[in-house]
Amino acid sequence: MTSFGSHTSRRSFLAGAGSAALTTLASSRAHGSVPALHEFRFLAAPGRARLTGDERPDTNVWCYSGRVPGPEIRVKQGDRLRVVVENGLAEETTVHWHGIRLPNAMDGVPHLTQPPIQPGGRFVYAFDLPDAGTYWYHPHARAFEQVGRGLFGALIVEEPGPPAFDRDLTWMLGDWRLTPSAEISADFGNFMDMSHAGRLGNTVTVNGRVPEPFRVRSGERIRLRLINATNARIFALGFKGHRPRVIALDGQPVEPHAPDAGRILIGPAARADLALDMEGQPGESFAVVETFYTGAPIKLLDIRYAEGARVRESPPADDVRLPANRLPEPDLAAAERHEVLLGGGMMGGMQSATVDGHTMPMRDMMRRGLAWAINGVAATDHAHAPMLTLARGRSCVLDLRNETAWPHPMHLHGHAFRVISRNGAPAPRREWLDTVLIQPKERAEIAFVADNPGDWMFHCHILEHQAGGMSTVIRVS
After folding, report:
1. Which residue from 97, 135, 231, 215 is spatially nearest to 167, judged by alpha carbons?
2. Is the pTM of this model over 0.85?
């Protein structure tokens, strides 16, 4: 596994060729009236990227406006975003704004919330940004290949008055299956990946590059935003010689705390914001390691301390708590309760499922590239009859039961939810998420208020599992 520790502190990406902001209108936020409007133009198209360093060939990728990751959007809470997306691919695409509570028509799901953007076509996404936090964008058309070829980018919504950090940085984690010539392997959607752990690559990147030290200064405090933009890889990251505190998950603030078991567990599509005090000495070096798959530490990158004077002698005493977003609190006593069974996959024991309204044996499903089901139904497309219809404003508890041999990061569009229990025990932090990682044979209860009308996807964000049937629709009417 290879990795890279580059970091960037862009406040905007105005210099990006073909992706420059068209305009940024002056904000009248200070006068309490019209929010700031930020406009961008993205081109989704083939390109080339230096993923593996200067001594290896460039890689043919698909990217937004010539970049992997795509341009980082960084705006303020309460602002309005308008993005013109042009499709330079040879196939249809869309853009989903992952984790944003937005109008259904802007959610970017082909045939469910919008017509797909045809080759040579364009679509205008326009929506307000109600919640501060760390989010991202990616396609929802053939996502298992389009994301796997490089179509993803960060969307950062800053708080009006965030805690003081010396730097605010994003690490976007990517995972690539590359050939010896540094080309992307074309074996997308194969049944082995579909029915097992998903597409796991052989090259991990941070911000689209492989190893370089992450350079820091002794005494500085960094806000580090981790985004897992991989198809299927789960990370368990440990920061040797450091004491990171988790301050937000999936964009939503949490009580600052040390990561469980000393490692940050982050599944596909999830995000974690860390407060990281650089307590090492000038000239020292420490590893960031990954332990999820092997248990043994595998180095992703080095934290390298600059020589010279310290920024400060001891960590600042300032609080690193983030202001909470204004999310509707579910009424658990009055909530509807629904059981959601996740089934299928290899070693899962599922014999059959409903496909297009008919019972289909697993062997026939496999011939169609299907291996997974939610409540016994395997989805064949984004648009289908809803699993649930909820009255607008109604509280809902979903009792998620993973009956498979594989983990599943389950993502709900258009809403955030509280995790209220795991395996029958109350969740200690009751954190707000939009993507909950459920381990094999695990059970989790999540609760939310169905306050955003429309048909919303609920699916596994291991993208091969989604394509293989683990997807459904929840309707809010």
Report:
1. 215
2. yes
